[in-house]
Every structure is written in structure tokens, then in C-alpha cells.
Amino acid sequence: MARYIIRRLLLAVVTLWLVTAVVFFTTHILPGNVALRILGPFAQRSAIDSLNEELGMNRPVFTQYTDWIGGVLHGDLGTSLKYNQPVAKILFPALVYSLKLAALAFVLLVPLSILGGIVAALNRGKIADRIITIGGLSAAMVPEFVWAVILVLVFGIQFSLFPVTAIPKDGASVFGQIYPLILPAICLVLVLFGYVARITRAGVIEALDADYTRTAVLKGIPRQQVIRKHVLRNALLPTIAVIASQISYLVGGLVAVEIIFNYPGFGLALRTSVTYRDFPMLQASVLVVAAIIVLVQVLADIIFIILNPRIRQKVSN
Amino acid sequence: MTDPGSPLIATDKVARGERIKVRRERLALLRKNKAFIAGVLLLGFWVICSIVGNLVTPHDPRQINLMATNLSPSGTNFFGTDSLGRDVFSRVIVGARPILFMSIGATVIGTVLGTTIGLIAGYYKGVVDALIMRLVDALSAIPVIVLALLAVATLERPSNFLTLVIIGIVFTPIIARTVRAAVLGETELDYVAAARLRTEKVPYILAVEVLPNVLPPIIVEFTVRLGYAIFAIATLSFLGAGVQIGSPNWGSQVAEHYSKMYGGIWWSTMFPAGAIATLAIGVNLIADGLMEVFDL
Amino acid sequence: MSKANEELTSPPARTGYSRRDFIRAASIVGIGIPLVGLAACSSDSNSSDTTAVDTTPSTEPSVAVTLLRVGMNKPLQEVGPYTTADQGGLGILGNAGEYLCFSNNSFELEPRVAESWAANSDSTVWTFKIRQGITFHNGQALDAEDVVQTFLKHLDEANKSQAAGALSGILQAAGVKKVDDYTVEFTLDAPTGGFPFIVSSDTYNLIILPRDWTSNWTSDFIGCGPWIMESYSVEEGVTFKRNPNYWDPTRQPAFETMECTFFTSGASSVTQLLAGELDAVTFVDPTAATSLPTDQFTLQIANTITHLQVHLGCDAGVFKDKRVRQAAALTLDRPAIIDGLLQGYGDLGNDSPMAPAYATTDQSVEQRVKDIAKAKELMADAGVADGFDVTLESFKRDDIDLLGQVIQSSFKEIGINVTLNITEGFGYYDQAWLNSELGITDYGHRGIPNVYLNRAYKSTGDWNAAHYKSPAFDAAADKFMTSADFAVQQEASKEIQEILLEDTPIITPYFANTITPVSNKLVGFRTTGMGHFDAAGAVII
Asked: Does residue B280 belong to the interface with chain A, where contact is any CB pair within 8 Å?
């Protein structure tokens, strides 16, 4: 198993390296006038030229790449062109905000979708099953920003139940911090619910049909207990894996949701850096987020292996 | 090449007849699937709009009328007017074309490239295979939207066509992975071995023998990807990536008008948003029906 | 949709001449008008910008609210004296820092660090008296040396200051002289009647800095303004605390803390205002503003000079013939544009920067109105009766997107097919701006039109996107800018207006109003056309 984990980690490193290459070279196909982006349109030409010189924008692309990678490995993510501040100083608070929103989304998602999956499995083929599976996946195909405007109109404006912006307030109570995040979190949940519920459903169905369940039922153990003891434990494993695999979609969804709710997270920062072609900021944001996603996926794989005796055996062999 | 007495041909004919029979059964199943039919109707509606939409709109979707901005829905403007006084109903109808054209285009590119690579990787295994798996890993670590934004930020003149190509390329390794998995199973089967015995060329084996047998997963993957493409393209046009200002694009209509909702002007946002939702759900219902019938 | 109470913080130009003429003349001669005097001059009965005086904390000690919550535009660049070039950033500069004088919404200058100023007979040498008893946030006392060093820093090319452009051709480092500890003398390159405006808050980078300042401004926001920075985050906002040592007791903030939250869209800030999370939002767009209920909020409206210039290439290409340019300008239905795009919150533009709100503007020059028949005739005379294709270049911003589309549909009426190439970010300024036949450029408010005339219209102007070259115009513009005499300026303005209407190098469809929504409980919160906001005299009642 240790060999598997090492192999998995090495693969993750290769993946990350590929990501850095993709990110850096994508953004360096076009040189553009970096100094003008820093100084703005009304700066004097001479100032723009001298700043370009200063920034070393005339160096070969490959040198710039190795310098960048070197910096990243030493914890230096570069300097934002737009704000002339270290990228890390802008990016990390934003990531913390996004993390809060994502965490709330997961807190809502996990019990809801597992419950949905179990209900669907136990009512296989009936109306409840169809609604949860087909409805859930249909909801998942509707982009987050569409959900966001619908939820804002209905719950924010029509019924005034929730705030329509998610500005974090320092020093607010826990509820005060969570409350404005509920609507944006629901947008994310709606897009993820369908998959997770479906995987749970499949897991539960498989477990229900499995020999050990039949044996338990034959032994006369009550249905409730069978489900709790045998079915759930086996059905939850694939759910863990699928939830981890959804993190990439979750991050993508943050961009649109944070814009609509004016939430100062990673998505908003990314959007700003795209608009103003703040490449150091852009590269660093994408890289950091990709790193987080890769890490989560590796962790999920490892947990999955540790928890699942059957796969563990296969891997050891 | 043709040997009438060969038993291999006979089994081939049987297989073909079998395939037709299975196809008929599947069609019958689909016709009974209400969700699938609903999906076909939804998608069909938008496809018709995208073809004849420009001819049937009650107003010119681009006609600005500064004296009639932000009017609520009425008998003249079924969906009201937007912030430049344009008819929202007409704009929603003609908005079907760009999103369908782009998402189908992107999915076709992804499917053609992905199927080709997947067939080759599944047949040869080895290096090509490993490379595809790494690429899939790297690409799945960057969310589609983020990757597309990155590319759009870099392009000097982003356009619909470039966005379409970018999405298609992002989809390629994912589709390749699905096809590869299906091909891996097929290469073990007799008919491939038989074709090899007949010393058929590899492209022939892949295109004529293997491809028809892995079509079901490809068809399902196509519809699923189409759903994702709609999702991604709508989101990108909402984010303003590669969209020509003023074009009747659903995503950009939402982006341009959602802030007006706070002032009670909901129609210029909600109708295009609803259009995106119905199209996405329609495609998903079709994908769902197909998955069920193909038992995937 | 009901509109909230509207207040004109500056009266419409048509009724405001005499008062403004007086004040403006006064500002040029440099009478140090005390604030009380200004308040008395403002004749609007319930104008909130004048309540500063009678609602100072000293007169109303019972005020219990110690926190002011403001929504403002997020700065899009590094905030600092050299770097700031946008509304969000200058809003911060103006609160932490202090200018020599402050250009308010009534086109008047309020003395700040400078107590008074005066020019020699031909407006080439300006003498500023510096106020005594001002200290910086770090306790350092301010005197003439700090003022001189501030100007030298901005004039030093190595610092790449945004203000350098505004001063170029007017002032050089050698012209800045300390006369005594509280007197500074500026010797100009050319006579400039409106020089005090150029060194006022209109050139928003020119806050007075400590003489030895070199560091990163965002770390402390040092200045001598009424607010001291407590915390700052580029994405979220900035929190200020009151400067207890602020020099002007009448403008000593009533609030212990001012919390400014950054917004990227006016709509979301308005929803926060509605939810009671904010007391004021600095600036919002007209549609967002109209959603506020009248009983809780007041909209403070100001006629500003903020405008969009649609340049038409004069030296080559499809718009080379001035008849074609006139025809293009005749297709626009300006009153409808103001109604449809700005919900009525704008002044008519007459294709020159001489806005109706300027006192010097001659209101008798005929307003250009939509006339398709005449436009078609001009097109035929110019030999392009069938029209032509052209690309409009600009950058994405709500008002530009909308105006671009209106131009596209208006030009179409006379056969001009416009393709919109409206890109994100600064790409437009990078390439297309000065090299396009047709484009839209945004111009901020200025208390006097010198910057527009000098840089966008004169043949030597470095922002002359239309490539307009007219000796007659240059002469009229110079006459306007060098004179300090109101009658001469008005006469020059008329010439400028007429020449530009005839030549039409640039279409100016409208001048936008600024809209500042504030809670009815908040009085004395002021904003400027330039983008400053001033809460020093504000209280919550």
C-alpha cells in the first residue's frame, strides 16, 4: 500500500508540473504591454517604457518560466500588476473566504445528497427515485449563475428571506457569518447534489443486492438495522470518492456565484485578474487552486484505499 | 478479400442482424421513456428556434428603442423589453442559435478528436495510453471555466469560434478516456482477432469493426458532454468571455441585466436564464434516457 | 418605479450663473473663503452638502453613532499618490490625504492645505499661502517644504506619477519654489488662469505628503486628511479612524470609525444599502438608484463633467470629410439617450467639452439635435450616400457598452455599419485608442475644461485620438486657458463651442450626473464629480 501511495503522490507531482507548464505558456503566448497595465492608460509613454525595461519583460519566455517556478518553489508567487502587492497577500485571504463558502456548501451537500441517494435507492423505480435522480441531475446541468439569479429573485427579492450579497462581516456571530452565505452555497449544492445522490443510490442498491445483506435479512435482523449496519457502510465509500472528484466543479462554480453575490473570494479575484490581464495574479491563482484540487483528490484516493479492504488487497498484490 | 464460404463472415452477418434487433428494442424503450420524450421536445423546441428563429420573431431582436426601455411583459412584448428597449422575447428566441451552434460544435470537435485518440490508445495501449491518462489528470485539476478564462484572457481577440475550439480541446481527453475504456474490452473479443487474422489494416479494424461496437458509450458521452458544453458556454458568455457586445446571447443577457432585478426589473434576466435552464435540462433528460436504455 | 428624493447639490447651470461667477472669480483671485461663507452662498434650501457647518459635532454632542458605513468602488490599481488612476483609489487618497484646495460640486475651490492663493498679472506666477498648524498622521508638522517636495516628487519622471501628465506643459520642477516656511511660489511655463484647479483635488494624485516620504503608501496611507487608515484589504475594503489632530475643527469627523466596503457593481451596493448594512454609497448607476424607496433614502445628484468622447478620425479614413462627421453626430437622439441610458440623470452634450454646467459656457450656441434628413444630405454631399463600414473601438464598461450599441444602431440609419470591438481591461488604451477611426474614451470630471482642451483637442495634445488639427481651435483654446478674466473666457468658450460644432472631431452625447444614495439619517455626506467622498462634516441624526 505504501508503494501505491508513493506512486500516487509522484503522479500528482507530474500532474502539477503539467499544470504549471499549461498555465505559464498559455499566458505567455502574447507579450502585451505589461507596464501599461500597471501604470494605466493616462501614464506618460516614457514612464511606460522605463517600467517595461525595469520589469525585465524583454527576457526570453523560458527564462521567465524558470524564474517563476523558482519563485513559486520558494513560496514567492509574484507581484500583482494591478495592485503592486505580493500575490499571496491578495490571494490567501480570498482563498479563505472561498473555503468558508465551499465548506458550507459541503456541509449542506453531504447529508442532503446521501439522504437523497438512500431514499432513491430504497424506492427504486418509484416516483421518489425518479424525482431525485432525474431532477437532481437536471439541476446539476443548470449553470450556477442561473441558479443564483433565480434564488436571488425568489428568496432574496420576492420574499426577502436572505441577503442578496454575501459580504463577510468581521466579528459577526457564527450565525451572522453563515446566514449571508446560505444562498450562494445552495447554488453550489444544486449543481453537485445530483451526482453525489446518484452515486450513493448506486452504492446502496449494490449493497442491498449483495450476499451479506441477503444473509443478514435471512438471519432475521430488522430491515432498519441491516440498512444501517451493512448497507450504509458499504455505500458511503464510493460517495467519498465522488465528493472529492467534484471539488473541481465546485471551484469552477465559485467564479460565477461570487460575482453575483459580490463575495470577495478566489472567484472574484480571478475574474478581476482576467479582466485586467493581471498575469502574475492569474497564473498564481490558477496554480494554487489546481494544487489544492490535486491534493484533495490524492487525499481522497488514499483515504478510499485505506477504508476499502477489497481494493487495499488488490493494491497490495 | 471476400470469401463466401468463410464462417467469419457468417458470424459477422449474425452480429449485424443482432445489432439491428437490439437497436429496434432500444428505440421502443426510448419511446416509452417519458423523461426522454420531454427532453427531446425541449431540445427540439430550441433547435427549431435556432433554425427558423430569425424569421419568426415578432420584433427585430437588435432594434434599440430608447423610448421603451425596461418595459414589463405585455401583449406587444411578451417578455418585456431590456435596458436598451429591445424585445426580450425575440432576443430569447434568436439566442438559441449561438449557444446550440457553439455547444454542438465544441462537442463534435471533442468527440471526433477524443474518439480517434481513444480508439488508438485502447488498441495500442502503452505510451499513448499513459500520456492520455496524465493529460486527463492535469486537465481535471483545472476547472473547465478557469481554464477557458485563462485562455480567453490570453487571446488578443477572443471570439465565439475560439471559445468553441477551447472547450472542444478540453473535452478531448475526457472523451478519449471513455472510448479507450470501451475499446480495451472490445480488443479481447473474437471479431477483432478475426479481423487481425484477415490481416486487415488497423484503421479499418478500428473504424469498421471496433467503432460500431463502442458507439453506445460514445453516443451517451456525446450527449453528456453536450450538456457540459451548454453549461460551460453559458457560463463563459455570462462572464463575458469572447462575446460580441449586443449579440443576443443568453448568458450575456443575464450578465447585462441581473443587476436590474434588484430594482424589480426581473424579466430581462429571468427569461434568458429560464431558456438556459430548459435547454440544459432537455439535453440532460435525453442523456439520462440514453444511459438507461444502453444500460451504462 | 418611484424615485427617491432628489437633491441638487449643485443647481442647474441655467439658474446658477451669478453665484458661480462670483465664486469662481473669487477662487481665481484667491480670496480664502471660509466654509461658512460657502455655505451661505449655496442657495438651495435643503442642500445636504452645506449642512456640514451646522451639524458639526461640537454643536450636537448628543450624537451617539460612532461608526459610518460607506460602500465605494473597489480600487482597480495600487492605491497611492503616484499610481492611483481610478475612482476607488482617489476616494481613499482624498480621505487620508489633503490637497492644496478642494474642487467641489459647485465648481468652487475650497481652501485646504493652502489658505489662499494669488497670481501675478499674466497668471504665470502663482503664490500659495500654506496653512499653519497642520500635522501629518505621524505627528510631523506640515510646512511649505512638504508642499514643494510633494510637487517635486510628482514631477520626477522616475516616480512615474499619474499627475505628471496633468502638470506637463504647465509646471516644471525648476518652477516650484519655497518662499518662506508658509509660502510656495509656482512659476509656470505658460499663463494658466485656472492653475489653482490644476493643483486642486481635480488632479487627485496631488495630496500633500511628508517631505521625506518614500515608502509604499498602502502600508500606512499617510497624509494630513481627516481620516487615518486602520486596516486595508485590496479585495474587501478599508477602515479609517478619525484624525483627532485634524486642522479644521469644523470638519472634525463626528464618527470614530469609517468603514468603507468595496463593491464592483453598483447593484450589489444598493442592496446592502437597502438591507441597512450601509449608510451611504459613494456612486451608483441610474437604474440601481431608482430602485431605492423614497422614504428611507435620498439621492444626491450632481451635474458633473464626466463624459464619454466618441472620436472620429479627422486626418484619414472614412471620417476625414467633416460633413461625414457632422452627419454621424446628427444621427444621435441625445434627449432619448439621456432618458433611456441614464434615466434622465445627465446634461445634453453639444459635441464640445464646454459642458452646460461650466459657468463659462455660452448657452446661446445652438444645441445639435437628431436630423436624419440633413445627415443623409451631408453624406450624399460628401459622396458616401450609400454609407460604409467602420469599427468602433473601446473597452468594456456598462455605459460604454450601452452607448456603443446606441451608436451602432443610430449610425445605421444613414448607412454607416458599425462593428463593435469593445474589449476588456486596458487593451483599448494599449493599441486602439490613438490609432482608430472611431472609438469611445472616458473622461473624468474636471472643475475647468483645460485638461480636455489641452490634451484631447489641441493639435499638440497627447490624447488627441481624433487626430484633430485646427489652428483656429488651438488659438481659441489658448485664449481660454491663459486668461483669468471671466468675460474673456466666456468669449473664448463660445468660439471653441462653435468651432467644435462645425468640425465635430469628437461627439460628446452627454455629461453624466453623479448619483450618491444616502440614508435619510445621514446628513453632510458629500461627493465630487471627480470621485471623492467627504464624510468629515457628516453626522447621523
From this structure: yes
